[in-house]
Amino acid sequence: SWRTSELDLPFMDANVLLRAILRDHPEHSPRATALLERIADGGSAAHVTTAVFFEVAFVLLRRPGANRGNV
């Protein structure tokens, strides 16, 4: 199963998720989105820690107009 090789997967950094969510970089954002689409389609995989999700939430919550309801 995928769990037996989870530690062999590449690590997904918060910046990859943030670039895909925020679409704020002309080169990195499309590449991040494409990677996430490949993962969603099963063509790729990555290891994401809980700390990465907390970092993404922290960064998004610091943006103007952000709150827990829209993050």
Instruction: Summarize the amount of helix as a percent range.
Output: 40-55%
**What is the distance, rounded to the nearest whole angstrom, between the alpha carbons of the first and last residues?**
32 Å
Number of strands: 0
Would you tell me the overall average pLDDT?
91
Order of helices and strands: HHH
Over all CA atoms, what is the radius of gyration? 13 Å
Overall outline = globular
- Percent strand equals under 5%
DSSP summary: helix tally: 3
Low-confidence residue ranges: none
Structural class: mainly alpha
Largest sheet data: none
Task: Describe the model.
The structure is a single chain. With 71 residues, the protein is mostly helical. 48% of the residues lie in helices and 0% in strands. The protein has three helices and no strands. Helix 1 packs across helix 2 and helix 1 (14-22) crosses helix 3 (50-61). The longest helix is centred in the middle third of the chain and has 13 residues, at 28-40. It is globular and about 40 Å long. The chain starts with 13 loop residues before the first helix and ends in a 10-residue tail after the last helix. The mean pLDDT is 91.
Write the layout of secondary structure elements.
Elements: H1 14-22, H2 28-40, H3 50-61
Provide a compact summary of the structure:
The chain has 71 residues and is mainly alpha-helical. It has helices spanning 14-22, 28-40, 50-61.
Features:
single chain; 71 residues; mainly alpha; 3 helices; 0% strand
